[in-house]
Amino acid sequence: MIAGNTLLTSYGIPVAGECEVKNAQAMKILSEFGTGGSFSEFYAMDFEDNIIMLGHNGPAHSVIAEGDVKLVPLPVYHGKPGKGLSIQMSVKHGEVTLLSVCEGPEGIFLLAAEGKSVPGPVLHIGNTNSRYRFPIGAKGFINTWSKKGPSHYCAIGVGRISDKIEKLAFLVNIPFIKVC
Questions:
Q1: Is the Cβ–Cβ distance between 154 and 90 less than 8 Å?
Q2: Could you tell me the pTM of the whole model?
Q3: DSSP-assigned beta bridge partners for residue 74
Q4: Could you say which of 28, 74, 112, 177 is the most buried, measured as most Cβ atoms within 10 Å of its Cβ?
Q5: pLDDT band at 54 (very low <50, low <70, confident <90, very high)
Q6: What mean pLDDT is predicted for residues 107-135?
Q7: Contact of 39 with 54, CB cutoff 8 Å
């Protein structure tokens, strides 16, 4: 499933894992802007190195990979029964935009942040794994992002495009929040 979903996502047909429709929408928005749209969630913070780590066991957007995209056999399939294949990659180093389609008491809103994918050690566990640095620092970013009421998942695209996302939100009459 992960390999097939990655292929579809890379061809502009985002398939969100774990039936997360809101994140499929975020992935599609980034894909339509030509910046990727890889499925991600927050999984680690390193306050000494001032980075946040995001990743997921799929689907990845192979067009935005830093280096090779690997198909990795897993003897234990991420805590689920059985074994399987997964995609392992990192997002290209450089400018990135995170986008989350969220739902709050007032309805749907778009939450975005701009930062950088930076080199450094990542876990090699058959996931998309990348390190991100934000202009307001790791602690400032995670506090500000969390207080906005984000969805569990977010999509990641390369480049800084929050201005385009803000214009889209205006056109479709959806509130837009930019964290940084």
A1: no
A2: 0.92
A3: 84
A4: 112
A5: very high
A6: 94
A7: no
Report the pLDDT value the prediction gives residue 17, as an integer from 0 to 100.
66
Q: Is residue 72 a contact partner of residue 17, using CB atoms and an 8 Å limit?
A: no
d(CA 13, CA 32): 10
Other beta carbons within 10 Å of 119: 10
The two beta strands, 107-118 and 176-178, are parallel
Contact 125, 44 (CB under 8 A): no
**Centroid of chain to Cα 157:** 7
Side-chain half-sphere exposure of 161, counting CA atoms within 13 A? 24
Q: Locate 171 and state its tokens.
A: 């056109």
Give residue 105's identity as a one-letter amino acid code. Answer: P
Residue pLDDT, tens place only, 89-101: 999 999 999 999 9
Contact 24, 15 (CB under 8 A): yes
